[in-house]
Amino acid sequence: MILQAGFDGYHIEPAALILAAKVGLTTSPEPETFTLDNLKAHRVIEHDASLSRQDFAIGDNLHFNEAIFETLANSNPGSDVYNVTSAGQVQQARLADSLARNPNVTNSQTEFTIRSFESALYLSVMGNGSAGVAPKNFVQKFFQEERLPIEEGWKRPSSPIEISSLAQLADLIAQGSNWNATDECPTIPLGSGA
C-alpha cells in the first residue's frame, strides 16, 4: 500500500521507496502499516539536523517547527526556487545548528545519507528532479502545511522518480554540504553467528 501510494501520489517508483518503507515498518507494532508517530523513533529513519523538526534529544522530533524550517525557507535568496546548491547549504547549516545545540547529536554516514536523499526527494517531488530545482512556494506549502500544493499549481511529476535520479541529486547535495562525520555507524548484528 505504501509503495502504491508513493507511486500514485508522487510518481515515485516503488524501487525508490522500498527500503524506506521496509525500515519504516520496523517502527510499528502492526505488520503492514506505520504512522508518523511510529516514524519518530530516533535513528531508524528519523534523524538529527532535520529540515523541519527538532532533534530527538532536545525537543519535539514529530511536529513541524517553523524556527527550524526557516533555514530552508530563507535559503537561496533572490530566487523563487530551491536547488541542489541551496539544499546542500541548508543541510550544512542545519547540521551546524544541531552540533551547536545538541550535545547528543547523531551524525554518521547513515544520517547523512538519509538527509541527502530526503532533500533530493523534495526537489524531485515538488519540482523538476532532472534539473534539481523546486519552486519555493510548493516546497513551503508541503512542509509548513503538510499538504500537496495543488491549489498553487503543483502537479504530480510527469516522469517517474527513480532511485538512480534520486541518487544523482543526493550526491550533488552531499557534495555541497561539506559534511564530516562526528559519529560512526553502529555495528548491527544480523544473526547469532558462530
Automatic annotation (TrEMBL):
> Could you say which cofactors this protein requires?
heme b
The entry's keywords: Heme, Iron, Metal-binding, Oxidoreductase, Peroxidase
Query: What transmembrane ranges does the database entry give?
Result: none
- Which GO molecular function annotation, any one, does this entry have? metal ion binding
Its domain of life reads: Eukaryota
Annotated ranges, domain Heme haloperoxidase family profile = 1-171
Presence of the UniProt keyword Nucleotide-binding in the record: no
Q: Which Gene3D superfamilies match?
A: Chloroperoxidase-like (1.10.489.10)
In terms of InterPro entries, this protein maps to: Chloroperoxidase, Chloroperoxidase-like_sf
Annotated PANTHER family? PEROXIDASE STCC (PTHR33577:SF9), STERIGMATOCYSTIN BIOSYNTHESIS PEROXIDASE STCC-RELATED (PTHR33577)
> What family does this belong to?
Belongs to the chloroperoxidase family.
What is the protein named?
Heme haloperoxidase family profile domain-containing protein
Q: What organism does the record attribute this protein to?
A: Moniliophthora roreri (strain MCA 2997)
